Amino acid sequence: MSDTPLPDRVRDRAEILGLFTAYAFGLDRRDFARVGSVFTDDADVQNAFDDYLPEGRKFSGVTVGGDAVADGARRLFAALDATQHLLGAQSVEFTDTGAHASTQIVAHHHRGSDYYHTGGTYEDDLVRTSDGWRISRRTLRIHWTTGSPEVFLAP
């Protein structure tokens, strides 16, 4: 663990948690530039569903780079009327090379009266860049779903 003084760590933690908030609001407000801005240019972002969830075959995969993450979200959310991404319990641990964070999430996706809700955890590795903290690696682990993933498919 790094020997950075506590006041700096408090500031770092606040900046890191602010990234996660920016990402959630970016998705829900369809501000995809904001979505992409929380990642490094070469960030590795993976969606992984627990094995018992059959829709995981449709939505699992790896994307590289903040711009690609933003473009993927833009395409995926095009068929939706509304979303809300809620952030729950969060932990941040500092390492010699950056930080690791875990964040519980619940995501609501709606099209008309149909919905698809998911619950899971973001596991993030972060690095400090010249623009501040950025996510260099994210794994979204989906643990449960309710509703129909078909809401993502245009009618």
Summary tags:
155 residues, alpha+beta, 4 helices, globular, six-stranded mixed sheet, 6 strands, single chain, Nuclear Transport Factor 2, Chain: A
The shape is globular
Overall radius of gyration: 16 Å
Return the string of H and E elements: HHEHEHEEEE
How many separate structural domains? 1
How would the blueprint of this fold be written?
Blueprint: H1 6-28, H2 32-37, E1 39-49, H3 56-59, E2 61-64, H4 66-77, E3 82-94, E4 99-111, E5 114-129, E6 132-147
Parallel strand pairs: 1-6
Antiparallel strand pairs: 1-2, 3-4, 4-5, 5-6
Structural account:
The chain has about 160 residues and is of the alpha+beta class. It has a single domain (about 5-150), classed as Nuclear Transport Factor 2, Chain: A. The protein is about 30% helix and about 45% strand. It contains 4 helices and 6 strands, in the order ααβαβαββββ. The chain has helices at about 5-30, 30-35, 55-60, 65-75, and strands at about 40-50, 60-65, 80-95, 100-110, 115-130, 130-145.
In short:
The chain is α+β, with helices and mostly antiparallel strands and 155 residues long. The protein has a single domain (6-152), classed as Nuclear Transport Factor 2, Chain: A, CATH 3.10.450.50. The chain has helices at residues 6-28, 32-37, 56-59, 66-77; strands spanning 39-49, 61-64, 82-94, 99-111, 114-129, 132-147.
